[in-house]
């Protein structure tokens, strides 16, 4: 039951990925990386046939997960009982191969190590790792569109606050970031208490 609900959650996260090019979950961010490898540009200009193929694949994946769950659950339980000294090196090799295959350069391996270290410390401090994964995936897209907008405005940053919509979005982003600072949270907590 839990697995079925979780799979439906990931299907819902594919809607903003395919339509807007914004991943709604870490698995959707990984799928975005797979689309980038195959030079498929997600967003409003996506070919509708690709959306139909993704939907068909999700239906087939649901059916396959049901069949595999019936026959392989005991095998996977035995695999999970393996000691971590055997299991983790295999995971490290597979993640290294996967991160190298995305861009084909050594910089991707350095990025993997850096993100892995940051994620480890975030896990120790009980911060969610999903925003980090989404940020790493969307970082390149943000950088590209930010440079394009700077080129269009001849390097003038006031273009980001001249229009009302952009100014409101910028203020909302600043408020969201400031709301995570403990000192600001305490101040708002005191104001609510009055």
Automatic annotation (TrEMBL):
Entry's transmembrane regions: 50-73, 85-103, 166-184
Keyword Transmembrane among UniProt keywords: yes
Species of origin: Pseudorhodobacter antarcticus
Assigned keywords, A-Z: Membrane, Transmembrane, Transmembrane helix
PANTHER family tied to this protein: TRICARBOXYLIC TRANSPORT PROTEIN
Keyword Protein biosynthesis carried by entry: no
Protein name: Putative tricarboxylic transport membrane protein
Residues annotated as domain DUF112: 10-134
Classification via InterPro entries: DUF112_TM (IPR002823)
UniProt xrefs under Pfam families: TctA
């Amino acid at each position: 039951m839990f697995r079925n609900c979780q799979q439906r959650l990931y299907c819902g996260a594919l809607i903003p990925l395919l339509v807007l090019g914004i991943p709604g979950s870490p698995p959707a961010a990984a799928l975005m990386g797979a689309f980038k490898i195959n030079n498929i540009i997600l967003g409003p200009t996506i070919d509708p046939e690709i959306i139909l193929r993704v939907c068909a694949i999700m239906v087939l994946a649901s059916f396959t997960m049901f069949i595999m769950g019936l026959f392989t659950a005991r095998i996977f339980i035995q695999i999970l009982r393996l000691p971590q000294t055997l299991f983790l090196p295999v995971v490290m090799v597979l993640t290294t191969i996967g991160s190298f295959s995305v861009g084909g350069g050594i910089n991707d391996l350095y990025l993997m190590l850096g993100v892995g270290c940051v994620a480890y410390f975030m896990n120790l401090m009980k911060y969610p790792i999903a925003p980090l994964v989404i940020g790493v995936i969307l970082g390149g897209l943000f950088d590209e569109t930010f440079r394009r907008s700077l080129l269009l405005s001849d390097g003038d940053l006031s273009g980001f606050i001249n229009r009302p919509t952009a100014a409101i979005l910028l203020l909302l982003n600043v408020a969201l970031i400031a709301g995570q600072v403990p000192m600001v949270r305490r101040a708002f907590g005191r104001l609510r208490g009055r």
